[in-house]
Amino acid sequence: MNPPKSNKELFQRIEDVIQHKEYVMPEKYGGTGAAGLYLEDLVGLSNTNKATPDAGQIELKTYSKKTALITLFHKEPQPTDAVRYMVSRWGWKDEKGRMAFRHTIKGKSEKFKVETDGDQIVVRKIGGNGVVPHWTHDDLMSVAGGKLHHLIVVKYKRDKQKVIYERADFYQNLQLSFFIWEVENGTVAIDFDAHEMKPGGKGLRNHGTKFRIAPENICRLYAKKERIS
User: Fold this and answer.
1) Threshold 0.70, pTM exceeds
2) pLDDT, tens digit, for every residue of 5-56?
C-alpha cells in the first residue's frame, strides 16, 4: 500500500482498520511489537528506526492493556561514556555473568533521582558520586519536538496472531516546557538497558536509553486531544 498523502487520508485508513475489527497477522509479525508493525503496514507507513515522524508530521504509537510504558524516543546521555560507567560502577552480573545495568527511573528510584540542574536534566546517584548522565533541555526538546509534535496512539488487544485495533487518539501540539517538567516529575520515565558483550570485555551492548510514559499520561504533554475512532 502506498503511503497516505494527507493526514485526512491517514485518519481514514486508521478508522477503517478499527471498523474492520479482527485481523489475523501473518506469521512474519512476531514479538511484542508485532501489532504496531502490522498496523503500520495496514495503513501504508514504512517501518523505520529513524528519529522522524512516521507519517510526515505525525508519529504513530500502539499499546495494549498490558502496556505499562510507551517508548517516546531514544536519546543517549552525555558524557559519551556515561552508560559504560553506569554498567561498570552500578551494574550487576546477569545470568550469563556479564555486568548489566537495566533500570527505570520515574523521577526517583531507590538508587537514583532525576533533577534539573541549570539547563540540564541530570541523573544523580543517591548518596554517591561519580559520572552524572545528563541531557540539555535543548537536546531533549529538539528530539521530542521533531518526533512527537503530533502523535496518534492506537489501542489494541491481541490473542497470539489475532489482533483487534480498538481506538485511536490524536494528540496535537506537544508542549515542550510540559515535557521537561514531566521528566523531572517522573511522569516521563528514563529507562537504561545495557550490558557487557561478554563477561569482563570492553564491548558494550546498549539497547538505548529510552524516555517512556504510561499511555494514560500522554495527554499531560499535549495542548489538544481528539478521538479519531
Assistant:
1) yes
2) 888 899 999 999 999 999 999 999 999 899 999 999 999 887 555 555 666 6
What does the pLDDT average to over 171-186? 94
CA 131 centroid distance within chain = 25
Write out the three cell numbers for 100: 548489566
At 19, list the grid cell: 471498523
> DSSP letters of 161-192?
TEEEEEEEEEEEEE-HHHHHHHHHHTSEEEEE
42 Ramachandran zone, left/alpha/beta (phi>0; psi -120 to 50):
alpha
Q: Domains of the chain, with CATH numbers?
A: 7-227 (3.30.70.3570)
Nearest to 99 by CA among 108, 86, 109, 80: 86
